[in-house]
Amino acid sequence: MLYTPPSSTLDAVIQAIEIRFGGLVSVESTRFGTLTLRTDTRNLVDIARFLRDDPTTLCHQLIDIAGVDYPARDSRFDVVYQFLSLRHNMRVCLKVAVKEGLLVPTLIPLFPVANWWEREAWDMLGIRFADHPDLRRILTDYGFEGHPLRKDFPLTGYVEVRYDPDRQGVVYEPVHLNQAFRTFDFESPWEGIRSVLPGDEKANPTEKTTHA
Which site in 3, 88, 124, 203 is 20 to 30 Å from 36, CA atoms measured? Predict the structure, then answer.
């Protein structure tokens, strides 16, 4: 069962944040025992330090950093930080919106574990982090083109990678699909298929089979 911290605990955190930051931080929700906050990238480092050090929070663990892509939005990306307080058994989610091409401050000086997660956000979505000591790809190959978790990234990608035994090495080639995408008119298998599949014409559901 998911533990939900007392409302008094969340109220104390919200009050402490309002006293410290005023209107620079907004409370988005308190659902499922998680306090979700939203702020600007300019305040990110100060708020993360507050969440780590303030007695009402003591979020000493940064457990995840993720990016979300909203292509139609002016600030295209959300960077979502998940903090955990073992002392108060509480989770805090912090969101910042960022325009494509702009920099997000790194949290490595506060939480060294942010290193690989920021690299992953760069690799998958192209979100850049200012002052990151080693911002390079971490999941895709170093020669990979584009960022595969963007909504406008083609499903087939741009190139395919394979091992060529003749060349004794890895080669990059344009994507080649042996079968083109097709539009099937088959309905859900739970509802049945109206069209006749190849081979089904041999069956006559109206005939009754007799056994000797």
Answer: 124
Rounded to the nearest 5°, which phi and psi values hold at 159? -135, 160
3-state class percentages of the chain: helix first, strand second, coil last, to nearest 5: 25, 25, 50
DSSP assignment letter at 20: H
Tokens of 184: 């099937």
User: Quick one: average pLDDT of 129-139?
Assistant: 94
| Nearest-angstrom CA–CA distance, 80 and 94 | 6
7-140 belongs to CATH 3.30.70.100? no
Q: Is 201 in a helix, a strand, or coil?
A: helix
Strand pairing class (90-98; 169-174): unpaired
| pTM of the predicted protein model | 0.76
What are the pLDDT digits (tens) for 42-76? 999 999 999 999 999 999 999 999 999 999 999 99
62: its two tokens = 């940064």
Domain boundaries defined on the chain: 7-140
Are 70 and 78 within 8 A, CB to CB? yes
pLDDT digits (tens, 9 = 90+) for 78-101: 999 999 999 999 999 999 999 999
